[in-house]
Amino acid sequence: PAAQDISAAKLAHPDGIEGSVIGYDPEASMRIVTIDRGAKDGVKRDDGVVTGAGVAGRIIEVSPLSSKILLVTDATSKLPAVVQRGRWWAIAVGTSTRVKLHYVSQDAKIRVGDRVVTGEGRSFHAGVLIGRIKQIEPVSAGALDQTPIVQPAADLSAPSHVVVLSPKI
Fold first, then answer.
1. In angstroms, rounded to a whole number, what is the distance separating the alpha carbons of residues 52 and 58?
2. What is the greatest pairwise CA distance in the chain?
3. What's the pTM value of the predicted model, to 2 decimals?
4. Which residue from 25, 54, 133, 139 puts its CA 20 to 30 A from 161's CA?
């Protein structure tokens, strides 16, 4: 499956830099993985990272021979996001296992199963799949927005191969 996953990512992003995951945070306090590609390969801080299934995260640290990826599920990860059906904008924030969408208007008619993609930002062009809405937390009294929970499309429990997206032009 990893070979199929990476070939799908390379097909979707032919200019991307292919990399293998070579390390994980031993305490799992942060959702960070290390890959075997770095500055010598053209990897830069804030480059977006995908698997064949969708968004994995973004580069947060680069050395000559390796780079660290902050996974989209990390609590410090924030990405512009769009619920595709209806074009509702949000900020995707990690929850350690999934992603929560913040700032979705309570008037937005979102549904479980809706696709969530990246909005235009510094790490991604618009339209890269983040995942699908798994559940919608009840709106609290007086709240102006609702909080959908997104199941990432990419399996981030133990990623093995990724593609670093070439710098946005």
1. 15
2. 52
3. 0.87
4. 133
